[in-house]
Specification:
The protein is of the alpha/beta class. The protein contains six helices and seven strands, in the order H-H-H-E-E-E-E-H-E-H-E-H-E.
């Protein structure tokens, strides 16, 4: 008996997409119960990302090390490297007041909508941002970063959806004069 795996592929893709949507879904009752920092940390870890609290020198990637005290620990940094975070979950960032550093490297579900939500929720605190190897980010998503007026360092690289990297880099440098924009154009 021969099983043809090409017929199973669409089911696998649908299952993975559905599961990713479940993991990224925002639960307002959870945010109300534990506060935005804890709820956001839970979301990030559930999707394979890491968080660093403002009173810690290490990143947390294990649920068991997460803070349960919403008054004590505030998220200061996010490392979304190779995580499955997507725009569906970026509303978890709403209410965070201490995030100064964020890194999104090789995030296959981060797209322009996710970047727009990131900017909306973190524009008053974010100072250091890296977006690299995120193939679904386009020129439009990159250009929304100009609203991050507190940004001091911006690193962009290998964004395959961006059609005019040098034009984007130039406009970002003009729009963010206090920021060092690092966008190697090949």
């Amino acid at each position: 008996m021969i099983i043809r795996t090409q017929h199973l592929r669409p089911f696998h893709l649908l299952w993975g997409s559905w599961l990713n949507n479940v993991f990224n879904r925002v639960d307002p009752s959870r945010i109300e119960a534990v506060g935005p920092d804890i709820a956001c940390a839970e979301w990030l870890l559930r999707c394979g990302a890491k968080v660093k609290y403002d009173n810690s020198s290490t990143y947390h990637a294990d649920y068991n090390t997460l803070s349960k005290d919403p008054q004590k620990d505030k998220i200061e940094a996010i490392d979304g490297t190779e995580s499955s975070i997507s725009a569906i979950g970026f509303d978890h960032l709403k209410g965070l007041r201490h995030v100064v550093n964020a890194k999104f490297h090789d995030c296959r579900y981060v797209d322009d909508s996710a970047i727009s939500l990131l900017v909306r929720h973190l524009e008053s605190t974010l100072q250091d941002l890296q977006i690299s190897n995120c193939r679904n980010v386009t020129d439009e998503g990159v250009m929304t970063l100009v609203r991050l007026t507190h940004l001091r360092r911006l690193h962009l690289s290998n964004l395959l959806g961006v059609k005019d990297p040098s034009g984007c880099a130039s406009l970002l440098q003009k729009g963010l004069p206090k920021c060092t924009v690092d966008y190697p154009v090949t």
